DNA sequence: GGGCCCATGTAAGAGGTTACATGATTAA
DNA sequence: TTAATCATGTAACCTCTTACATGGGCCC
């Protein structure tokens, strides 16, 4: 149940409405923990019911601003330090690799070249983000940079791997259908 | 809907029962696309209903052996070559990094050291698998090696990143609570 | 006979996606 | 006045997890 903790984490920075959270997810967490509008409003209700957040202000158009409570803050810290991150990652990109023997080597190479290109593009996008975010020594900047650095290293690794893999397939004897 | 394609991919190697598939998922796909017993049996029924697989033999204890059909094979190849892999990855490990500013720097460092250790352990496990799988030049060996190589590079990258990140936090001014 | 593995299935519930539905406020 | 944005909520559906439920066959 990481959605609730993602929301608590954002609310730890200050009060926000469901609409605000939606924007925050889009700009800062979309690559790590995407969330939809319907999820956010439903979960906000549950968080309020369990006392981890509370409504602190109401604005125009029915706007409700929520703030994290002490219990919410405790739950967030507990989740960060005491709950084991989920190691299992599902990757349909990698799943296809397992079955590349069912297509022609040409198609397999094309597939891996596409992955290399996608990784390169992703890397490029992250370098731009890296340039934008501040070089400050405050905690927020440091942790933000650490997260972006993960993405940079991941996309670089994936590009290199895919390019290496294309070479490997070149070693395969030409006619390898089925 | 990658589960069905994972199952088709395994059945492309030869007929198997639900029970067989469960074992195959456990030994070969657990790190890429885990599946549970209840999922497999339910999906086998749906695959048979849509004609992508069919029962080819019945054995003791109600065992039903399924084989992929021509339509199933076509669907598998279509999925591999024409369907864009899902780029969005959820990572609660990385999500926590975004919120490390809410805990003490000591705890943040500990968290990242734990991630480095977990990655190192994962890398070690994969090197053993790498040693076991054949060095053959046939398609199955080559693609298997490519998939394992991804895991090796990923876990190496993650270990290096986490160790680098610990150093970054050391640059933070000591008292940075809240 | 008893324990282990083989073998299949169902049900409840959590989490997530997509679509539907509605309306207020603001700025050009 | 009208289009964009702010703002909240519900419903249907899919996927995945966990637990329940049952029983046959094999080997010691």
CATH superfamily of the largest domain in chain A: Winged helix-like DNA-binding domain superfamily/Winged helix DNA-binding domain
Total domain modules of chain A: 2
User: How many strand elements of chain A?
Assistant: 3
Most extensive protein-chain contact, per-chain counts: A-B, 70 and 70 residues
Biggest sheet descriptor of chain A: 3 strands, antiparallel
- The helix content of chain A, as a percent range, equals 55-70%
Poorly predicted regions of chain A: none
The CATH topology of the largest domain in chain A turns out to be Arc Repressor Mutant, subunit A
* Discrete helix count of chain A: 7
Distance between the termini of chain A: 42 Å
Radius of gyration of chain A: 21 Å
**Proper CATH architecture of the largest domain in chain A:** Orthogonal Bundle
Order of helices and strands of chain A: HEHHEEHHHH
Quaternary structure annotation: homodimer
Strand content of chain A: 5-15%
Pfam family, one (chains A, B): Vir_act_alpha_C
Domain Transcription regulator PadR C-terminal (chains A, B): 90-169
Organism (chains A, B): Microtetraspora fusca
InterPro entries (chains A, B): Tscrpt_reg_PadR_C (IPR018309), Tscrpt_reg_PadR_N (IPR005149), WH-like_DNA-bd_sf (IPR036388), WH_DNA-bd_sf (IPR036390)
